[in-house]
Input
Amino acid sequence: MQVPGCTRARMERAMNRKLFGLAILVAISVIVIKFWNAPVTEVPVVPLAEITIPQFSTAALAGQRGFNANCATCHGENAAGTDQGPTFLQNIYQPAHHSDFAFKLAVKNGVRAHHWRFGSMVLVSGIADDQINEIVTYIRELQRANGFE
Output
């Protein structure tokens, strides 16, 4: 039985659009699954003896105190990393890849594990925006002194 006004060509076009949509959905699903389950990059701990400590600015010195109080437990003395958190003295944390704003978001919101094997970072409460800025200044000055610009 044929539906009035519906030609075979129209029905084939409608079926082709549905199949094309299904193919796109499958392709997107495959891509998402591939990247969702991608292995996490190993992040090294930097030996403290290899870290150059610069002459910090006043803001960076304040940031160093804030970092030691709030971040060093996981990210290590002088941001060298620990078995609980990555070092910030590596290419992936340079400003071109992780902006200052990315650090601020990480402190305020936490971060899903994506560059490390340590698990997700929980948000750090009780740190004011100006203190976060000082901590980022400390990290950036430490990075520059160690060749990560």
User: Anything to note?
Assistant: The longest helix spans residues 8-36. DSSP finds five helices and no strands in the chain. Residues 48-145 form a domain with the Cytochrome Bc1 Complex; Chain D, domain 2 fold (CATH 1.10.760.10).
